[in-house]
Design goal:
Layout (H helix, E strand, L loop, with lengths): L1 H28 L2 E7 L4 H16 L7 E7 L4 H13 L4 E5 L1 H8 L7 E4 L20 E5 L4 H11 L5 E7 L3 H16 L3 E7 L5 H8 L5 E3 L4 H4 L2 H10 L4 E2 L3 H5 L4 E4 L2 H16 L10 E2 L4 E5 H7 L5 H4 L3 E3 L5
Parallel strand pairs: 1-2, 1-3, 3-4, 4-5, 5-11, 6-7, 6-8, 8-9, 12-13
Antiparallel strand pairs: 10-12
Helix pairs in contact: 2-11, 3-4, 7-9
Length: 328
Amino acid sequence: MKTIRKIAAILITLCMALTLFTGCQQQSAEKIDIGIIQLIENGAFNDMREGFIQQMKDKGYDESKANFHYKNAQGDSTNLNTICQEMVDKGMDLVVTIATPASQAMVNLESDIPVFFISVSNPVGARIISDMEKPDKNATGTSNAIPVNEIFDLADQLTPGCKTYGFLYNTGEINAVTTVENCKAYLDSIGLSYEEAVVTNSSEVQQAAQSLVGKVDAFFIPNDSVIQSAMNLVAEVAREAKIPAYCSSTTTVESGGFATVAISDTEIGAITADMAIEYLGGKAIEEIPAVVVPATDIVVNKTTAEAIGANIPEDISSTATLVEDAAK
């Protein structure tokens, strides 16, 4: 009888151990769910998204450990808010937001889901966080503060003699407004003039660009999803008027703008992934400072240069990225 009881006890112990082992296996096999949100489809945002995903995979969070749930609002703010709420309802482990509008929409929900933003020009001004060094609101990420001084210095080299710049932007995007304010401050400091034309949607962009012709020597385009969605129309106006259009992103240059000093979109996505990995490794989100990723790449559109009759000095062409017009 004692032998039977001993055998029974051993069997019970083995069953308990097997149950525990199976539970651990199931727990280890659970994958994390990562939401990724874009307001609109464009090359820059796509590169940021792919840079984030690739870095996550390279650091061990491939399809065996993570599900990536990508949603695009197709430029519609109502869709954007719906997508953000869906991410909350589905209980994502973290959400990645690309650019300012998506980041604002997600953070404004005040959910328990951590938000990692990519390429927000002014996170504090957009009220996504209150402090770059000690981020709050359950969010942190990367900023692509536009190097306006460097862009205007580049303009002075590529098209010397520009006295008046035309700003084309959407006042509804805080990142665009902040960049234009910085531009105005810099141009004031060096004694140059500016005009502006503002829009609320993409259907107004072409007319707004045309309204600046005859008043300005060059355009300046901030990072602005509304303008970017109709950049081919801006490029058409600028080329016909022989006006250089200086931009804030590589994608906008590839879409017909003339030149910029820009960040690497893939790199800024990868840097944000590293921050998300820190969080997944156990670091509190408020202990992961938001960072400004510097712009280092000079990008010039050769197609536009030919169209407006601009020469690219050899000292710039030898180090710059020269692109063909994406629409050519």
